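sorry for the late reply, my laptop died twice this morning and i had to redo everyting from scratch. anyway the thing you sent over, i finally got around to it. pasting the sequence first so we're on the same page, its 173 residues, then the predicted structure underneath. double check i copied it right bc i was rushing
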Amino acid sequence: MAISRDKKNALVAEMSELLADSKMAVFAQYQGLSVADVQELRRAARESGVVIRVVKNRLVRVALASHDAYKDVDTSALTGQLLYAVSSTDEVAPAQILDKFAKTHPALQLIGAFSGEGATLSTDEVKALAGLPSKEQLIAEVVAQLLSPVHDITNALSGNLHALLDGVEAKAA
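ok and here's the structure:
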């Protein structure tokens, strides 16, 4: 059944809004996935703050053309049945979600991505992004590195203090 013009305009407006706010939009072929598989993917994505949309490629091209950042983007890879994973908070989350899901569901194949700046990323670049640690993990690692000297000094001082107290206790006995 054909989609009405109003419904198409609503889909373009929604996709346009998602792309305007996005830091990364990853697209993948999903041909061969069941409805239950796609629902499972959407559930996993929702937990990570990623939005999954299945929209006709022609409507996505219209949405891309409506933004200055995406006007000159190469859309030649937008062929076949594609789903789009978009995140407005994390650059790598969409790639990680789709890559993790593709490991257990080989019917899902990453095709490429659009960065928030309007650059087109290839499949290899998307897979490289998916291999990066999450934003939270990177922040935790930086904080741990910054606190490492403080912990080392504290441990050194507490070790000497314990040795001093043990010596005093031994003299008193």
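The chain has two domains: 5-132, 133-173.
thats about all i looked at so far, will dig more tmrw
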